[in-house]
Write a structure and sequence with these properties.
The complex is a heterodimer. By secondary structure, chain A is mostly beta strands. Chain A is built from no helices and eleven strands. Chain A is globular and about 40 Å long. The mean pLDDT of chain A is 93. Chain B contains no helices and eleven strands. In chain B, the strands form two sheets. In chain B, strands 2, 4, 5, 6, 9, 10 and 11 form a seven-stranded mixed beta sheet that branches. The termini of chain B are far apart. In chain B, 34% of the residues are buried. Classes of the chains: A mainly beta, B mainly beta. At the A-B interface, strand 5 and strand 10 of A face strand 5 of B.
Chain lengths: 109, 113
Protein backbone atom coordinates (compact mmCIF):
# COMPACT_ATOMS: atom_id res chain seq x y z
CA UNK A 1 0.00 0.00 0.00
CA UNK A 2 1.36 3.41 -0.94
CA UNK A 3 2.24 5.76 1.88
CA UNK A 4 -0.33 8.34 0.82
CA UNK A 5 -2.87 7.48 -1.82
CA UNK A 6 -5.20 9.84 -3.65
CA UNK A 7 -7.49 9.54 -6.64
CA UNK A 8 -5.63 11.60 -9.27
CA UNK A 9 -8.84 12.76 -10.92
CA UNK A 10 -9.44 14.95 -12.73
CA UNK A 11 -12.67 15.92 -11.09
CA UNK A 12 -14.57 18.17 -13.49
CA UNK A 13 -17.43 19.91 -11.71
CA UNK A 14 -19.69 22.86 -12.52
CA UNK A 15 -19.52 26.07 -10.54
CA UNK A 16 -21.56 25.83 -7.36
CA UNK A 17 -21.18 22.08 -7.04
CA UNK A 18 -20.01 20.26 -3.94
CA UNK A 19 -17.02 18.00 -4.40
CA UNK A 20 -15.22 15.66 -2.00
CA UNK A 21 -11.75 14.15 -2.09
CA UNK A 22 -10.48 11.26 -0.03
CA UNK A 23 -6.98 10.27 0.85
CA UNK A 24 -5.77 7.07 2.52
CA UNK A 25 -2.51 6.60 4.34
CA UNK A 26 -0.60 3.51 5.38
CA UNK A 27 1.40 4.65 8.40
CA UNK A 28 -0.77 4.37 11.48
CA UNK A 29 1.82 6.41 13.40
CA UNK A 30 1.01 9.48 11.29
CA UNK A 31 0.25 12.38 13.57
CA UNK A 32 -0.30 15.53 11.57
CA UNK A 33 -2.46 15.85 8.50
CA UNK A 34 -2.87 18.64 6.02
CA UNK A 35 -4.46 19.58 2.75
CA UNK A 36 -2.25 21.67 0.49
CA UNK A 37 -3.28 23.30 -2.74
CA UNK A 38 -0.97 23.46 -5.73
CA UNK A 39 -1.66 25.52 -8.83
CA UNK A 40 -0.04 24.50 -12.10
CA UNK A 41 3.76 24.90 -11.91
CA UNK A 42 3.52 26.71 -8.57
CA UNK A 43 4.54 25.83 -5.05
CA UNK A 44 2.26 23.94 -2.64
CA UNK A 45 0.37 26.18 -0.25
CA UNK A 46 -1.30 25.12 2.96
CA UNK A 47 -5.07 25.04 2.60
CA UNK A 48 -5.88 23.66 6.02
CA UNK A 49 -4.69 21.38 8.77
CA UNK A 50 -6.89 18.40 9.58
CA UNK A 51 -7.84 17.66 13.15
CA UNK A 52 -9.41 14.56 14.67
CA UNK A 53 -12.54 16.49 15.50
CA UNK A 54 -12.86 17.73 11.93
CA UNK A 55 -12.56 21.36 11.00
CA UNK A 56 -14.21 23.85 8.72
CA UNK A 57 -12.91 26.97 7.05
CA UNK A 58 -15.56 28.73 5.02
CA UNK A 59 -16.52 26.47 2.12
CA UNK A 60 -13.91 23.88 3.04
CA UNK A 61 -14.39 21.04 5.52
CA UNK A 62 -11.73 18.51 6.44
CA UNK A 63 -12.25 15.25 8.30
CA UNK A 64 -9.89 12.67 9.74
CA UNK A 65 -10.77 9.04 10.37
CA UNK A 66 -7.88 7.45 12.22
CA UNK A 67 -9.50 4.03 12.49
CA UNK A 68 -9.85 3.74 8.73
CA UNK A 69 -6.72 5.80 8.02
CA UNK A 70 -8.22 8.31 5.68
CA UNK A 71 -8.79 12.02 5.50
CA UNK A 72 -11.26 13.90 3.38
CA UNK A 73 -11.77 17.37 2.00
CA UNK A 74 -15.18 18.72 1.09
CA UNK A 75 -15.54 21.86 -1.01
CA UNK A 76 -18.97 23.44 -1.13
CA UNK A 77 -20.19 25.97 -3.69
CA UNK A 78 -17.17 25.44 -5.95
CA UNK A 79 -15.65 28.52 -7.59
CA UNK A 80 -13.64 28.71 -10.79
CA UNK A 81 -10.70 29.78 -8.62
CA UNK A 82 -10.83 26.46 -6.76
CA UNK A 83 -9.39 24.76 -9.85
CA UNK A 84 -6.06 23.32 -8.71
CA UNK A 85 -4.43 20.13 -7.51
CA UNK A 86 -5.20 19.23 -3.90
CA UNK A 87 -2.41 17.47 -2.06
CA UNK A 88 -2.93 15.22 0.92
CA UNK A 89 0.07 15.66 3.22
CA UNK A 90 1.03 14.12 6.52
CA UNK A 91 3.91 13.54 8.86
CA UNK A 92 4.71 11.24 11.72
CA UNK A 93 6.12 13.08 14.67
CA UNK A 94 9.51 14.45 13.73
CA UNK A 95 9.53 13.26 10.12
CA UNK A 96 9.35 15.57 7.13
CA UNK A 97 6.11 16.03 5.25
CA UNK A 98 4.99 13.16 3.01
CA UNK A 99 2.93 14.16 0.00
CA UNK A 100 0.31 12.34 -1.98
CA UNK A 101 0.33 12.72 -5.75
CA UNK A 102 -2.63 15.02 -5.58
CA UNK A 103 -6.16 15.18 -6.95
CA UNK A 104 -6.81 17.53 -9.81
CA UNK A 105 -9.97 19.62 -9.69
CA UNK A 106 -11.37 21.61 -12.59
CA UNK A 107 -14.35 23.83 -11.88
CA UNK A 108 -16.19 24.67 -15.07
CA UNK A 109 -18.37 27.71 -15.72
CA UNK B 1 3.58 38.64 4.63
CA UNK B 2 6.97 36.94 5.07
CA UNK B 3 7.88 34.53 2.34
CA UNK B 4 10.49 32.05 1.26
CA UNK B 5 12.33 33.23 -1.84
CA UNK B 6 14.26 31.09 -4.30
CA UNK B 7 16.67 31.95 -7.07
CA UNK B 8 16.94 31.43 -9.91
CA UNK B 9 13.38 30.73 -10.99
CA UNK B 10 14.64 28.66 -13.91
CA UNK B 11 18.06 27.17 -14.60
CA UNK B 12 19.18 25.26 -17.66
CA UNK B 13 22.42 23.36 -17.34
CA UNK B 14 24.39 20.79 -19.26
CA UNK B 15 24.66 17.26 -17.98
CA UNK B 16 27.67 16.88 -15.71
CA UNK B 17 27.73 20.51 -14.63
CA UNK B 18 27.38 21.69 -11.06
CA UNK B 19 24.40 23.80 -10.05
CA UNK B 20 23.62 25.72 -6.90
CA UNK B 21 20.02 26.50 -6.05
CA UNK B 22 19.50 29.28 -3.56
CA UNK B 23 16.84 29.89 -0.97
CA UNK B 24 16.23 32.59 1.59
CA UNK B 25 13.94 31.11 4.26
CA UNK B 26 11.69 33.20 6.47
CA UNK B 27 14.01 35.04 8.83
CA UNK B 28 13.04 33.63 12.24
CA UNK B 29 12.47 30.07 11.03
CA UNK B 30 14.61 27.23 12.31
CA UNK B 31 13.82 24.22 10.13
CA UNK B 32 14.67 24.13 6.45
CA UNK B 33 13.86 21.66 3.73
CA UNK B 34 14.46 20.88 0.10
CA UNK B 35 11.85 18.99 -1.89
CA UNK B 36 11.68 18.23 -5.57
CA UNK B 37 8.85 17.54 -7.98
CA UNK B 38 9.47 15.87 -11.31
CA UNK B 39 6.91 17.01 -13.87
CA UNK B 40 3.64 15.16 -13.37
CA UNK B 41 4.80 13.41 -10.23
CA UNK B 42 4.46 13.99 -6.51
CA UNK B 43 6.47 16.29 -4.30
CA UNK B 44 9.39 14.28 -2.86
CA UNK B 45 11.43 15.03 0.23
CA UNK B 46 15.18 15.47 -0.26
CA UNK B 47 16.68 16.79 2.96
CA UNK B 48 15.93 18.62 6.18
CA UNK B 49 18.31 20.95 8.00
CA UNK B 50 18.26 22.17 11.57
CA UNK B 51 20.83 23.76 13.83
CA UNK B 52 23.36 23.95 11.00
CA UNK B 53 23.31 20.30 10.15
CA UNK B 54 21.33 17.78 8.15
CA UNK B 55 18.68 16.20 10.34
CA UNK B 56 17.27 13.80 7.78
CA UNK B 57 17.75 12.91 4.13
CA UNK B 58 16.02 10.66 1.65
CA UNK B 59 17.45 8.02 -0.70
CA UNK B 60 17.36 10.60 -3.48
CA UNK B 61 19.85 12.79 -1.60
CA UNK B 62 22.98 10.88 -2.55
CA UNK B 63 26.61 12.01 -2.63
CA UNK B 64 25.92 14.28 -5.58
CA UNK B 65 23.81 16.53 -3.37
CA UNK B 66 24.87 18.83 -0.56
CA UNK B 67 23.29 21.64 1.42
CA UNK B 68 24.76 24.63 3.18
CA UNK B 69 23.66 27.58 5.22
CA UNK B 70 26.80 29.66 4.78
CA UNK B 71 25.77 33.00 6.21
CA UNK B 72 22.75 32.47 8.45
CA UNK B 73 20.38 33.66 5.78
CA UNK B 74 20.86 31.73 2.53
CA UNK B 75 20.15 28.01 2.34
CA UNK B 76 21.64 26.37 -0.73
CA UNK B 77 21.30 23.05 -2.50
CA UNK B 78 24.25 22.00 -4.64
CA UNK B 79 24.14 19.24 -7.22
CA UNK B 80 27.71 18.36 -8.10
CA UNK B 81 27.35 16.62 -11.45
CA UNK B 82 23.86 16.94 -12.84
CA UNK B 83 22.10 14.11 -14.62
CA UNK B 84 19.17 14.29 -17.02
CA UNK B 85 16.94 12.77 -14.34
CA UNK B 86 17.70 15.67 -11.99
CA UNK B 87 15.41 17.82 -14.14
CA UNK B 88 12.61 18.84 -11.82
CA UNK B 89 11.11 21.67 -9.82
CA UNK B 90 13.06 22.15 -6.60
CA UNK B 91 11.20 23.67 -3.67
CA UNK B 92 12.72 25.10 -0.54
CA UNK B 93 10.56 25.23 2.59
CA UNK B 94 10.96 26.53 6.11
CA UNK B 95 9.16 26.09 9.42
CA UNK B 96 9.24 28.24 12.50
CA UNK B 97 8.91 25.32 14.87
CA UNK B 98 8.68 21.62 14.17
CA UNK B 99 5.42 20.25 12.80
CA UNK B 100 3.89 23.66 12.22
CA UNK B 101 3.02 25.06 8.82
CA UNK B 102 5.77 24.68 6.24
CA UNK B 103 6.07 27.65 3.88
CA UNK B 104 7.30 26.87 0.41
CA UNK B 105 9.26 29.04 -1.97
CA UNK B 106 8.12 29.49 -5.55
CA UNK B 107 10.57 26.87 -6.71
CA UNK B 108 13.48 26.64 -9.14
CA UNK B 109 12.81 24.77 -12.35
CA UNK B 110 16.00 22.89 -13.20
CA UNK B 111 16.39 21.59 -16.72
CA UNK B 112 19.37 19.37 -17.46
CA UNK B 113 20.16 18.98 -21.15
Amino acid sequence: RKEVEQDPGPFNVPEGATVAFNCTYSNSASQSFFWYRQDCRKEPKLLMSVYSSGNEDGRFTAQLNRASQYISLLIRDSKLSDSATYLCVLNSGNTPLVFGKGTRLSVIA
Amino acid sequence: EPEVTQTPSHQVTQMGQEVILRCVPISNHLYFYWYRQILGQKVEFLVSFYNNEISEKSEIFDDQFSVERPDGSNFTLKIRSTKLEDSAMYFCASEGTENTEAFFGQGTRLTVV
